Protein 1
Amino acid sequence: MKKWITDMMYSFPVQLLFLHLRNNLLLIGMWVFVWLLFTGKVANLYGVKFLFLAPEYMGEVGFKSFFLLGAAFGGFFMTWNLTTYLLDAHLFPFLASMKRPFTKFILNNFIVPLTFLSFYFTYTIWFQRYFEYWSSATILANCIAFLLGFILLLMLSSAYFRFTNKDIFTFSKNVNGKQSPTLVVNKAPQRKRDRINNIIQGNIRWRVDTYLTEKLRFRIVRSVQHYDYNLLFSVFKQNHLNALVVQLFSLVVLIILGYLIDHPFFRIPAGASILIICSIVIALSGAITYWFDRWRITVFVVLLVGINFLTKYESFNHKNKAYGMDYETTPADYSYDVLSDICSPKNVNEDKRNTIQALNNWKSKFPNEEKPKMVIVCVSGGGLRAAAWAMQVLQQSDKVMDGKLLSHTALITGASGGMIGTSYLRELYLKKQEGENIDIYDRKYIDNISKDLLNSIGFTIVTNDLFLPWTNFEVDGKSYRKDRGYIMEKQLNENVDNVFSRRIKDYRTPELEGKVPMVFITPSIVNDGRRMIISPHGVSYMTIPPIGVDRPNSVEIDAVDFGRVFANQGAQDMRFSTALRMNATYPYILPNVYMPSKPVIEVMDAGFRDNYGINSATRFIHVFKDWITENTSGVVLLQISSQVKVEEITAKDDQGAIESILNPLGIVGQILTLQDYEQDTNLGFIFDLLGRDKFDVIRYIYYPQDDKQERASISFHLTSKEKDDVLNSYFLPKNDEKLEKLKKALE
């Protein structure tokens, strides 16, 4: 028994595991990181685990997508082995005395990858059965596809190394059968030469008694003290060179794929993209460690400082732009004086008259003697979950009410995913008004808006954005760089049959004539925290509370009229899809947008300031309260939220000392809850402003089917189970009663 334990402890696979745990924590950490992702321990709220458990390719989850994910895993596996071989093979000089040393190294380095694969297949099989309801045959086919992709990548890599890697027998041959003289004079770094020589002589010993052969049998390790260490080092050196060539080739392939992002065929699954990112991190960290060794931390810090310095210059720092706008003309002056001039009484009154004209046209759809109820729709952010939920609520409710809901709706506003969904439905509604034969209640439109966006975005980050975007495209003669913002808009339009092809100004007439509801898109400005109000009309009245117009300097300007500030930079020519993207950047997922202004302002997700659209709605009601009181029978604020309004209270009494120190920062994570509190206060004022019998708030909130069930993820990807859960939430009793309340409010 004791001998068996000793043999196991000093076997090459176990010693490699100990070596990784001692020397290669960063490399082991990459396996742990991917494991945390696909098990949902990290980024579970954003649905990242589904990108591994059910990868999507060209709109489908199946054999092709799992095959590509398996191939990407094969690349990750090979990169990890190449890097560990690069760093640590010299610690085991007996390898250099064997045929195909790298192959034997991979074979004995199996413990970590095999453990990872065991966990992965367990999770993905469970997921496919529970979340996608697939048959055993389909699940088996997907697993086989993954393994085939993995094996194919290994075979291609093995073929390359088989014909290029040299072993000791190759190096020791020449025409006379003697050792090549070039090896004797081979000069390695003195420190590494001394270390290898000490290992060979036994002065430094990383004990290995047995190793695993290609026939999966354990063999005893032979002594290599009789070999010239120059000869052994030459074997490793040549193998290392091939490893670096393969890693460089992988980077070149990624850059080429980045050039092909327009073609769906080349947009690999997002899970595969993440594995490629991890492979790059492993390769770079390994290369820095190999070349600089004890100086690696210093080099890493210098690299970070250098990158930060270089990216201050435009040539090395790509800034995403608003497609359709003119960045070649004189930048807009963005200053407090300009903002003050915009909300002058003259501009505000002019914009109010224009909006009242639109409201009058909206009212003209109803009988003259009728004072209709005005509906203002506020939708929350939340990725495709929010988009599908918003469309489901509006489609189902309007269908049951025979079109009454959309005809009564005067304004739609909100954040990110919710605005993508409602804008899609509004576009379909407009096409129907223009005479197209469209059933706006068709389920296929929800399927369209909930199609995957994350795969294309993730792939573009890996193949394009990491290396600085270098390909261009044109919009109305203006040139822009292709990046993940570009591909998001392209993929979104592909998903919805290119209905988001209009520009901001193309909605001016339909909104003014009352054919469709007005839409306010309200991204946040990073520089000063103000909201930017994007509309085809002048909306200076939205930039400051009404009292601020009559009494200058009494209250702060808290928003910006996009159309007026950027009138000379083509504000109205901006793509509507770009406005939606600016409204839904999701930190780090999509790029912030830099506007043509001086100073340059940076725009990000609307959820930073108003994730529910309530601020815009209450400001609008406040400004037009007189018209609303005179011309309507009241306002119904329909809030469609993918977030639970009242969260459970989290206990804080079991925290340690370090957690307690960080407690004051915890409130930052409650930004959406804080918005809820403030916005409910605003709604309370509106009840007093209009009268309690003239104002209704009806909230449709997405609830999971089961209280113990996880909520659908907030991401640009939805699984079949998540989508079904979101759509079925509309029919839950707690939401079903909202329909009766809505019907009654509009009677």
Note: The radius of gyration is 31 Å.
Protein 2
Amino acid sequence: MFSLSNTVRAARDDTLSMDALASAIRVGEAGSFAALGSAFLTRLPATPVPDPYLVAISREMAESLGFDTELAESDEAAAFAAYFAGNPTREWPADALPYAAVYSGHQFGVWAGQLGDGRALTLGEVQRDSARLEVQIKGAGRTPYSRMGDGRAVLRSSIREFLCSEAMHHLDIPTTRALAIIGSDLPMRRESIETAAIVTRIAPSFVRFGHFEHFYSNDRIDDLRALADHVIDRFYPHCREADDPYLALLDQAVHTIADLIAEWQGVGFCHGVMNTDNMSILGLTIDYGPFGFMDGFNAHHICNHSDTQGRYAYSRQPQVGYWNLFCLAQALVPLFGDNLPEEGRSERIVEEAQKVMERYKTYFAPALEAKMRAKLGLEVAREEDVALANSLFEVMHANRADFTLTFRNLAKIAKADASRDAPVRDLFLDRAAFDAWAVRYRERLAHETHDDDARAEAMNRVNPKYVLRNHLAEQAIRQAARKDFSEVARLLDVLRHPYDEQPHYEAYAGLPPDWAGDLEVSCSS
């Protein structure tokens, strides 16, 4: 099997070869998205940035791709930074140009028409064991889909995406990954003057709901079918065995999105911009912008300062996921029913699609309930469990109790000793309200066979101690603006072990400081 690691090492004696790395990232291979052709993408080189330099690298992601991080730190460090900034040391061969994909989408519930990779270029794919992974640089300059934008990303947003991509992976939540951040002192105007950066992100595919909407809206059914066939053949071959493979693809999307949003809700994560062009057909968390992990719990929390109507508030994420799936279903309708007789075909297609869509509820509710039982340390399902979890959320909401610390500290509660409640009880201003809930919780724990220690151990495997709180990201960003990237590396190290006790990093698990309450994150973030 082709191995990037072996390719790189074979190409050098005592020095690392960027040429070998670049040749291992291939574009246009059979079965790839690029092989679908010019109707789906535009090939073009990146717009170079001056004097690129390495800001951060995920050693774990690099090793997953099969190459040594020495490439970023050896005599070839400058070549590494240049390559992942989109500044090749030699001219791109015509058949190896990166590409920007075209798609469309609904943004904040309104049809926006054609969109696309306005500032992202896919360099190609890496074959790693049995996996094929796309390598994409975000912030690489204008493309035909930039819509008046400059095609750039800034250091602030790139750090946030880099850290959260890796943090979500270690929380076991499906996500795109991040390899590196490349910086440049090129000035960029956002709310203020900032500097440019390019983040390298990795995924099996970057196909979004909006890709399907694009071809449906333009009545390009042959292209729509080619895209669906690409996704089925490469990622969901079992759908071919169904009576209607395209209906099976919709069912797969319904299931993966239901599971994904249940995971988000379970850790207090808000995406911020759940537009259909930001929804992955593989059920990955994608396009990290104005995201946020909640501090004090507010069921209606809006993490995106630009979301003035609260469309993407925490409590609305499950319904928005459902709405987005309806958009996907509509786009796939022309492909449904190939096996149906012509008479009554349209009615049957609508009926079958509606049945698939209704499964969202049967997928999402059990997934979230199972998540909450695990977070509460409950082994066996009982009828009262949903009400118990909901009542906890009500008390947390009323007290703005810290989401992450509440669930983490619940593990310290004992079945028969209320004196051990203090670590979680002290997070609630209304102690009596928490005490009343704790009585119900202990009554429920009486039906469990695990002892306190075994239950705590199980709870600590699903309730993280460390998440990417906004103030932690902000501290890393402020230091990085002074060319001190040590906090980015340190925070990445913390977030790689979110469920572990890390005594030397205890401060990263504390309540946010008072100044964090003034932080705002918008679409430009």
Note: The CA atoms of residues 177 and 202 lie 5 Å apart.
Protein 3
Amino acid sequence: MPDKNDNLSPEERVSDFLRKFVNNKKEKETKKTLNTFTRSKQNTRGRSTNPFARHDINEYVQLELPEEVKSKITHLQQIASSIEDKVIKPKRLPSLKGKNFKIDYKKELNRGQFLATITVNGPILVIAGAGSGKTRTITYRVAYLLENQVPPEEILLLTFTRKAANEMVKRTSELLPEGNVDQVMRGTFHAFANYTLRRYANMVNIPINFTIVDTGDSEDIIDLIRSELKFNKAKKAFPRKNRIQGIISKSRNCSISIQEVVEREFTGLLDYVKDLELIARVYKEYKRANNVFDYDDLMEVLYESLRDFPVFREKMQERYRYIMVDEFQDTNIVQKGIVDFLAGKHHNIMVVGDDAQSIYAFRGANFENILTFPAVYPDCKIIKLEQNYRSNQDILNFTNNIANNALLGYKKTLFSENSNEFKPIAAKYYDIQEEADFIGDKILALREQGIDFEKIAVLYRSSFHSNSIQTALIARKIPYIVVGGIKFIERRHIKDMISYLRIILNPLDAVAWNRVLKLIPGVGKVTASKIIESIQANDGKLNVESFGKKKFGKGLADLQKALETASREDKPLIYRVEVLRDYYNPILKELETDYRKRAQDLDVLQQMSERYEVLDRFLSDFALDPPSDQFQDMTTPLIDETEENPMTLSTIHSAKGLEWHTVFVPHLLDGLFPSSRGLKKIEELEEERRLFYVACSRAKEQLYLSMPSYFSSWDDFYTKPSRFLIEVDPEKYRGSK
């Protein structure tokens, strides 16, 4: 006889199961307990009543390690454990007396920061814990070099965001107003590669007027190749353009074959490996023929140029005698190779990073780069920055415990002079809705205590973890922003305008031509291809007369006229952008019903161009460090000027480097965080642990950890608290049921 529960959903079956064991009165009491975070009490035997302490980590599925992985881990552990011998621990700090410095370095820096600042010769590894003032350290080190008469143009500062590089130089300028700090070469790896390759193009045999395509353009090129090779008509569902682009990029960033990428991460695509390899080859040839570089090309071409052109390599080594690399744990194999080539002669290289915050393996970052630095540079000195200026000691005790549970890494113990007491709090709720309700209610309570919304963040492992939380915030009229979404540069009308400008710089840019030609009425995919073939056959010149009798002839002539006018190099860039905007406005009006709102974005674009004198610099900055979404509202005033600044909802990956007074980390069930995918390989599991560390170390004063009692997905059912929480000493946090 069929069971009456056969037709129930998994969630309904769970609810029915739980109700059998909980009467109404007890269920109400349980919910009341789950909805209130309370301090853990000690029982008469002195043991913690933290409910999570009852779990044993041995109850969790443990990963088996292949012999080659065990061997690799052992090797890296030996390197990490041997660094204490190289850590600089002078009994007395060196004296700077007798030198007429404008800055009192010893007074303004703590012990570790001071040592990192004045140790400028030879290789040095600075292990900088979260919130330990690494930006301050690099800033003062640049100032120290300048005060020691090192020419600013001989200093190279590589970072992962232009904002970070500019912030360091700005602070240094404030310390040394007369130090010519603006001449220090600084920027992201990609920006540095772009600048260097353009300046020395003739020396390394590349065209100087190459254009840079972003990820979206790369996907479009791959889609074109996919169609030309008839893979779009395959009998089986062929991988889409974004998946192919991701596989090719991962292969290049990790210096492994496409087959290895597929075997590691996309086993369902093993039948397509040969086809993907073919697309990758054609993609490379297409870019070369059209004088186009993607992001990965910038890294690869610079690396190969340093490797294959000795004169170029020697010139770079002589030019940059002092090199500093921020966030070294985020470098990939190619980036590390570039750094090693640049530092190959003088060895005056300082890398700064935190192995516990290496969370970007998905985009090619190699965690081993920072671990093996002492082995690559045997004479390197090591300095630890362990004084934290962000969090209170209770939070640091918790995050230290997370980091030191890692299988690999440099052991460190962060400490703080912030004596505010607030142990992180962990609790389990009945379901995701009750968890979300708690977060919403707690945020309102914090606001009543004087904690502004903008000082609060909810950080989650995956975007879908925020769905129920957003609903709870909306119900309570709590303003919030979600980090992500469509970026300014990814908007259709902005990409159109950038394409016009790219054509002016590189008339062979087929990607840009394809985009703007299809904006002309009567020009479709096939016609655009024919026009592009004509342009390439004429060395980048558009021969309108060949298509004059076509119905799109006038539209083509108007485009040619606009491009010719905007190509005048004797005119300022803002004028050239305005010419193209005047041409594009009628097109935008026909394309979009909200064209007035989109026109505001074009206002911003035009205003931005005023800061630039040359087109290639404007396009390079736009491609390599695009503006954020903040620009979309520059011309739109707030409806209510007293409106409160919103709180933040963000994935943890997007929150790195940021901090808030209060942080919530939800959905801490094993299988959600760590994700089920991260439970397959030890390398992925370790990165998931580092991700948890990054999330928790964003909190300055209060940290809340929560989970529902269960979560049901189409392929599994999760009920256990995250193993990362269970691993932590229960005395380091307060727990509720």
Note: DSSP finds 30 helices and 17 strands in the chain.
